[in-house]
C-alpha cells in the first residue's frame, strides 16, 4: 500500500520522507561494472606478462581457497528461543563439511556441522539457542566463526545480546499513522514484536506492508531503537515520529539490523513505522533500550 495515505508522506522537507522516497535504494554507480572511464592502464613493472615467449605461462600459484566471510550477525528473540542470524559468504563454495562455532562470554561454545545443523539457506543462516541460557537485562557478548571443509577459518564477528525485561505484540489495525496501535509504556529494555506480510517497492516508494506502533518511555534521555527481522537478506526500515505526525529520525539503509538513537521525552507518546523495502514478509523485533 502506498504511504501517501498519511500526511507524513507529503512533508517534502522532513527526514522520513526523504528516507521513504529513497530508502533501501542503493546509489547507482555507472562505473560499478568495472569500467574505468578515462583512466589508462598502469605500466607493468614485473612478474609474468603476455608475450614473454611462445611457451610462456602464468606462474602456478596453486589452488585458490578464499576464507569464509561472516557478516550481519545479530540476535532476534523468538518466543522461548534466541535466533542468531548471520550472512555467510563462501566464494569457493566449500563450506559443506565445514562448521560454524557460536560462543558467548559466560556460556560454553557450541560447534555446528555445516549445513546440516545450521538453519536458513543460501547466504542467510541462523542458529538457535534456548532463551533461558541468558540472564535478563544483562549484556552477553557473542562470537561467531566459520571454518570451511579444507580448514580455512573466517575472522570472528561479534554481537551483543540483552534479553529484554518486557515485551509486547503490535495491535495495529491498518497501514497508516492514524491507525497505529499502542503498546503503552515500555519497561526498559523492552521488545515490541510484529510481522510484515509483504516487503516490496516500486523504485521510489514502499508497496508492501507497513506497521505503525505507538509507545511511551518512562525516562527522558537518549534511547536506542534496534530493528531485527527473521530474514537478514530482506530489507526492512525504521522510522520514528511524534504527534502530528512529525518525523524525528530514521534508519533506512541496506544494513541488518537497523539502529537509531534519539533523545525521547518520558511519558510522551511516540510512533514508529516498520516498512519493508524488499525481500518479502517476515516477523520483526523492535528493541528499545
- Helix tally equals 1
How are strands sequenced across the largest beta sheet? 9-11-18-13-16
CATH C-level label of the largest domain: Mainly Beta
Largest β sheet strand count, sense and barrel closure:
5 strands, mixed
Helix-strand makeup class? mainly beta
- Poorly predicted parts: 1-57
The CATH topology annotation of the largest domain reads as Jelly Rolls
Distance between the termini: 30 Å
Anisotropy-based shape: globular
Number of domains: 2
What percentage of amino acids are in beta strands?
Answer: 35-45%
Question: How many distinct beta strands?
Answer: 18
Radius of gyration: 23 Å
Helix content: under 10%
Properties at a glance:
289 residues; 44% strand; 2 domains; Jelly Rolls; single chain; Immunoglobulin-like; mainly beta; 3% helix; disordered N terminus; 1 helix
Kindly describe this structure.
The protein is built from one helix and 18 strands. With 289 residues, the protein is mostly beta strands. The strands form four sheets. It has a five-stranded mixed sheet with strand order 9-11-18-13-16, with no helix packed on it. The longest helix has 8 residues. The radius of gyration is 23 Å and the shape is globular.
SSE topology sketch:
Layout: H1 15-22, E1 69-78, E2 81-89, E3 99-104, E4 107-113, E5 119-121, E6 124-130, E7 139-147, E8 157-162, E9 166-169, E10 181-185, E11 190-196, E12 210-216, E13 221-229, E14 235-242, E15 246-251, E16 258-264, E17 270-278, E18 282-288
Parallel strand pairs: 9-11, 10-12
Antiparallel strand pairs: 1-2, 2-6, 3-4, 3-7, 5-6, 7-8, 11-18, 12-17, 13-16, 13-18, 14-15, 14-17
Amino acid at each position: 500500500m502506498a504511504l501517501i495515505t498519511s500526511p507524513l508522506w507529503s512533508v517534502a522537507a522532513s527526514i522520513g520522507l526523504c528516507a521513504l522516497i529513497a530508502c533501501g535504494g542503493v546509489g547507482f554507480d555507472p562505473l560499478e561494472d568495472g569500467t574505468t572511464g578515462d583512466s589508462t592502464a598502469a605500466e607493468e613493472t614485473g612478474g609474468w606478462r603476455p608475450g614473454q615467449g611462445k611457451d610462456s605461462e602464468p606462474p602456478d600459484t596453486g589452488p585458490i581457497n578464499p576464507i569464509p566471510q561472516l557478516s550481519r550477525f545479530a540476535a532476534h528473540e523468538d518466543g522461548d528461543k534466541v535466533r542468531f542470524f548471520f550472512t555467510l559468504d563462501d566464494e569457493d563454495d566449500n563450506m559443506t563439511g565445514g562448521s560454524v562455532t557460536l560462543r558467548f562470554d559466560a556460556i560454553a561454545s557450541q560447534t555446528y556441522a555445516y549445513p546440516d545443523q545450521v538453519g536458513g539457506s543460501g547466504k542467510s543462516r541462523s542458529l538457535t539457542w534456548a532463551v533461558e541460557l541468558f540472564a535478563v537485562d544483562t549484556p552477553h557478548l557473542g562470537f561467531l566463526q566459520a571454518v570451511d571443509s579444507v580448514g580455512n577459518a573466517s575472522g570472528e564477528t561479534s554481537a551483543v545480546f540483552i534479553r529484554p525485561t518486557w515485551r509486547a505484540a503490535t495491535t495495529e489495525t491498518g497501514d497508516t499513522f492514524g491507525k497505529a496501535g499502542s503498546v503503552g509504556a515500555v519497561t526498559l529494555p523492552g521488545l515490541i514484536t510484529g510481522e510484515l506480510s509483504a516487503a516490496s517497492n516500486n523504485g521510489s516508494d514502499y508497496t508492501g506492508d507497513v506497521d505503525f506502533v505507538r509507545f511511551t518511555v518512562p525516562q527522558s534521555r537518549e534511547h536506542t531503537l534496534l530493528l531485527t527481522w527473521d530474514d537478514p537478506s530482506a530489507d526492512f526500515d525504521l522510522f520514528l515520529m511524534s504527534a502530528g505526525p512529525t518525523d524525528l529520525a530514521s534508519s533506512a539503509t541496506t544494513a541488518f539490523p537497523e539502529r537509531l538513537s534519539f533523545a525521547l521525552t518520558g511519558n510522551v507518546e511516540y510512533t514508529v513505522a516498520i516498512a519493508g523495502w524488499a525481500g518479502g514478509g517476515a516477523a520483526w523485533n523492535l528493541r528499545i533500550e
